[in-house]
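Subject: Interface between my chains keeps coming out wrong

I've been trying for a while to get a sensible model of this assembly. When I model each chain on its own everything looks fine, but I need the whole thing in one frame so I can look at the contacts. Pasting all components below, labels as-is. Any help appreciated, I'm running out of ideas.
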Amino acid sequence: MKVIILGCGRIGSTLARSLFREGNDVTIIDKKSEAFSRLGPDFGGAMVVGNGVDDAVLRKAGIEKAQAFVAVTNGDNTNIMSVQIAKVKFNVPKVVTRIYDPIRACAYRELGIETICTTMIGARLIKDYVMGNDLGDIGQYCELTDDEAHL
Amino acid sequence: MYVIVAGGGKIGHYLSRALVDANHEVLLVEKDRARAAYLAEDLADAVAVGDACEVRTMREIGMERADVVVAITGDDEDNLVICQMAKLKFDVPRALARVNNPENEELFKKLGIDTTVSSTKIIFNLIEQQIETNEVIPLAPLQKGNIEIVEVDLGPGSPVVGKRVPQVVLPDGALIISIVRDGHAILPNMDVQFKDGDSVLALVSSDKETDLRGIFGAAR
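Reply #2:
Try treating it as a single job with all components included. I did that and got this:
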């Protein structure tokens, strides 16, 4: 599978290495070339330096042939915009992004963009563990209560 | 009108100033506290500190009663999210975004942003129009640059010389305004014949400018 990952931080680099190890065609994009050091010496995928909301950079990464696009930079808005470019402009079949802000994550999920809110997942998972509750699934963790939606 | 301006850079500042002077209710939202304090020296209580991308900020500044939101920061991704969230969560009737990378204009439109403004594109168009002056000189871009007034100088080799106005088939969306001959403007009546040395003033949509040039064509 040809996968493009935007953002070579902890999540991006871990995901890239794991997908590459399993035989996928992986291209990772980051603003800074230093970030690629997280990939380690065994990573054999492609690395592209540039801004992930720039068409030219995405084309260079091969977005026109990608089957999946993942946006995991540390900027929610960069992630939101890049996945919309991937979806609307380049028709990438599978598009997903990590969003820190629970409200933005929820709003864009309603617009049909797959968002994963690690803030909510982390907080609720930890709470369930501390309270001794059964653990939930991603869907339950990411959904906002009315109170949370009106923070 | 209640206008919310997101982004207190120079454009945001002077836009807010102009809107205040035009008697609109304005709120300029700026993330940086020090910058916001500076802006408040000029705009007083028309400045709020906060991240306009956050729904919490939007709620505090009364986004739900805004008539227009203008996202004018230097980052296209922030401008996109501000406009989308304002429409999605607060049903703001009009959202305008500044687009720094002109390639994003089309995307923003597809994603439901009503109006985009790209200073990069405006300046680029101005430069292009300056240097693209073979026979056709665009005098003024109209309607967001879609329609232009152009001046065509006819040379002896022009295929229209000797023809009357109705004999020349113009591209769709083009219109002859006037013919300037020996310093005098002539109205393009049915019986006017084109002559070597004429300057033809025409209205044309930008994408048909090349076609128009072809029709009047030839050497100066």
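Reply #3:
Confirming on my end. Chain B has two domains: 2-121, 129-216.
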